[in-house]
Amino acid sequence: ARTGGSVLPRKARFPHHLFKRNADSWSGLSWMHESVALFSTTVKFLLSAVGNGMVLLTYQRSRKRMGASVVLYVNLALADLSCCTLFYPVSIASYFQHAWQGGSASCAYCGFGYHVLSLCSMLTVTAISSLRYLKVCNYSFYAVWTKAANMQKTCCFIWLVAAVWSSFPLLGWGKYILEPPGLSCIVGGGDNQTSVSDTVYVVCSFSLFTLIPFLIIVVPQCQIICTVARASCQVSGERIRNRMNRIEKRLTWMFFCVSLGFVMAWFPYTMVSFLFFFNKGHQYMALWGFVILGLLAKFSHVYNPFIYFFINLGF
């Protein structure tokens, strides 16, 4: 913009006096990039709250006619809704202010919360994948484990494991630190040196809660799809059996969409976070790349409810 034939300085174009600007918290992103991230996070907040809220409301109204295994889908929706309502507001405020809000205390709070809910989602999807495999390939074992009491115990165990493992950085094994853009917190080590204990924690987290679950999710799904495809090719004149085959195909494709989306959303982000731990200089990726992958990972909180409603007969 011009005033009296002169160009206004850059500081006059945006209200920088509203933003914190110090070496520890300034995001380093352009105004446009942060605006896009702010808009995306706000939209995800609204869609996730509505979609996952509808899943919980539908389950509350129709749980008597739903199978016991639906509890795992509800557990996944509960984790996504909790992440949306408890921690998205902090991210939105940080994007709006161009800096992390609350200092190290809020970083520990959000890092712990994100880690708990991410592990809960990961373990829940892994449990669903295992149950789907048992139902299609080993039904006798599936019938034993899908009782309501076992499903409730599974959900409690998932939350317990996620909470205990995520609490270790609060006790000194690992640490919650700001990622390079300074607008979100992840598991990491010290700024200058990375201790052996922190390295062990990060490697164990990546192996136990990323690589192994992804293998458990992906490999059984391939076998399930092959099994269902072979069964659907068999000719049968029984109307009931044909209807059950159609339902099973829809359920198979529903969870295939959930698992594929989950893996595609979270694996790139976890890989980049893992690399960042060993390369604090983040030269291997631009700051905007961290933001894009983080937004993509958290987008899984949005699309799962719509998959349930459009594909699953239970919803």
From TrEMBL:
GO function term, MF aspect, one: G protein-coupled receptor activity
Primary location class: membrane
InterPro entries per UniProt: GPCR_opsins, GPCR_Rhodpsn, GPCR_Rhodpsn_7TM
One Pfam family in the UniProt entry: 7tm_1
Cellular-component GO terms for this entry: membrane
Localization (cell): Membrane
Keywords: G-protein coupled receptor, Membrane, Receptor, Transducer, Transmembrane, Transmembrane helix
Domain spans labelled G-protein coupled receptors family 1 profile: 51-308
Segments passing through the bilayer: 36-58, 70-92, 112-134, 155-174, 200-220, 251-278, 284-311
Membrane topology annotation: Multi-pass membrane protein
Presence of the UniProt keyword Transmembrane helix in the record: yes
GO biological process terms held by the UniProt record: phototransduction
Superkingdom of the source species: Eukaryota
PANTHER family the record matches: OPSIN (PTHR24240)
The protein's name: Opsin 8, group member c
Species the sequence originates in: Tetraodon nigroviridis (Spotted green pufferfish)
